[in-house]
Amino acid sequence: MVSINGVQKAGYEEKTLSDVLAAETYHVNQIAVEINGEIVSKSLYTETVVHSGDCIEVVSFVGGG
Predict the structure, then answer these.
(1) What backbone torsions phi and psi does residue 23 show, to the nearest 5 degrees?
(2) What is the pLDDT of residue 5?
(3) Which residues pair with 2 in a beta bridge?
(4) What is the reported pLDDT for 65?
(5) Does the first or last residue of the chain, that is N or C, have fewer Cβ atoms within 10 Å of its Cβ?
(6) Which regions in the chain score pLDDT beneath 50?
(7) Are 4 and 58 in contact (CB under 8 A)?
(8) Residue 61 confidence (pLDDT)
(9) Strand partners, 57
(10) Contact, 29 vs 37, CB < 8 A?
(11) Is 41 left (phi over 0), alpha (psi -120 to 50) or beta?
């Protein structure tokens, strides 16, 4: 299992971060992602593989003024 924003999720092991984010319906142009405390560059989403035990944190950008 992997943890996404503190929620345990099964079935994402050995998938790319890009696939995980799409399955969770995140819009990649509106978020920042870190895995195990390390920020992942958007250019690496398609080649970053998620492993069992990984902790993924997704932060959404909020605009305002």
Answers:
(1) -65, -30
(2) 98
(3) 9
(4) 63
(5) C
(6) none
(7) yes
(8) 79
(9) 34
(10) no
(11) beta
